[in-house]
UniProtKB/TrEMBL annotation:
It holds the Pfam family ABC_tran. Residues 2-246 form the ABC transporter domain. This is Phosphonate transport system ATP-binding protein. The lineage of its organism: Bacteria, Pseudomonadati, Pseudomonadota, Gammaproteobacteria, Pseudomonadales. Residues 252-272 are annotated as: Disordered. Keywords: ATP-binding, Cell inner membrane, Cell membrane, Membrane, Nucleotide-binding, Translocase, Transport. It comes from the Bacteria.
Length: 272
């Protein structure tokens, strides 16, 4: 369980990026975090693992108050939080397997991580995760030889290799085509369901968020203006968050893409 209590962030520039954010995310829940550009989505995600220091409020993961930790304790706590990034953040010249194993680096002693020595269990788990994200045959390829969708799957496997208690996902599909985006979102959601893992996904595409989240949190100018079920995200609510748009047409376009016959209805679902 993740809990945010009155979390605010004002940058040194005076930008009030987040104001009094309060919510809890129970185990296994996938939260889609939406809102216009500059609403504070990245700030909120980064406050949770303290890549950005909140100005006020408390953030608790399980029994640990993340906001109260010193640097060393924070390093240890970050092992419990898997991150998935828009630009994948892979080490391009390393193999797929080495990238996945790097998810364990926070766990192995410094000398072993320097020599990149991993236990047999870590390696077996990495193989199993690569199999589950559909990349078992690619384990020995260099990361820079992969497509965007494949890279993001490596990013997902690396985050899961950490055995995290929470996933923070920052615009995972922003660099991907619509079909690959849906596959990646399905993969993240299924992985969370199987592991009872909570996740917060910062996502620009409202329709994808609605399709693959258990809950939506809508931010506008640093304030939470919506927190509810994906079905409750009516055109009126969307207009509150984003301003006027032709939501009916946007939904129509998306429905066409979702029924794209080339997109298997359950692709990867069993494999994750
Ligand atoms: N390092 C920073 N220093 C000063 N202001 C910042 C910094 N990072 C973000 N901001 C400001 O905080 C506000 C929220 O930004 P943030 O990046 O969190 O929004 P966002 O919803 O993630 O936007 P986007 O969808 O465009 O990535 C904006 O006004 C932004 O200009």
């Amino acid at each position: 369980m993740l809990k945010l209590d009155k979390v605010s962030k004002t940058y040194k520039t005076g930008d009030k990026a987040l104001h009094n954010a309060c919510f809890e995310v129970p185990a296994g829940q996938v939260v889609g975090l939406i809102g216009p550009s500059g609403a504070g989505k990245s700030t909120l995600i980064r406050c949770i693992n303290r890549l950005v220091e909140p100005t006020q409020g408390s953030i608790t993961l399980g029994d640990t108050e993340l906001t109260g930790l010193n640097r060393r304790e924070l390093r240890r706590a970050r092992r419990r939080i898997g991150m998935i990034f828009q630009e994948y953040a892979l080490v391009e010249r390393l193999t797929v397997m080495e990238n996945v194993l790097s998810g364990r680096l926070g766990y192995v002693p410094a000398w072993r991580s320097y020599l990149r020595k991993f236990s047999a269990d870590d390696i077996a788990q990495a193989f199993s995760l690569l199999d589950r994200v559909g990349l078992a045959d690619h384990y020995n390829k260099r990361a820079d030889a992969l497509s965007g969708g494949q890279r993001q799957r490596v990013g997902i496997a690396r985050a899961l290799e950490q055995n995290p208690e929470l996933l923070l996902v920052d615009e995972p599909t922003a660099s991907l085509d619509p079909k690959t985006s849906r596959q990646i979102m399905r993969l993240i959601r299924t992985a969370c369901q199987e592991r009872n893992l909570p996740a917060i996904i910062n996502i620009h595409d409202v329709m994808l968020a609605q399709q693959f989240s258990d809950r939506i949190i809508g931010l506008k100018a640093g304030e939470i203006v919506f927190d509810g079920a994906p079905d409750a995200l009516t055109d009126e609510v969307l207009t509150t968050i984003y301003g006027d748009e032709d939501w009916t047409q946007l939904r129509g376009d998306n429905a066409e893409q979702s029924t794209d016959p080339e997109t298997p209805a359950v692709d990867l679902a069993e494999g994750v």
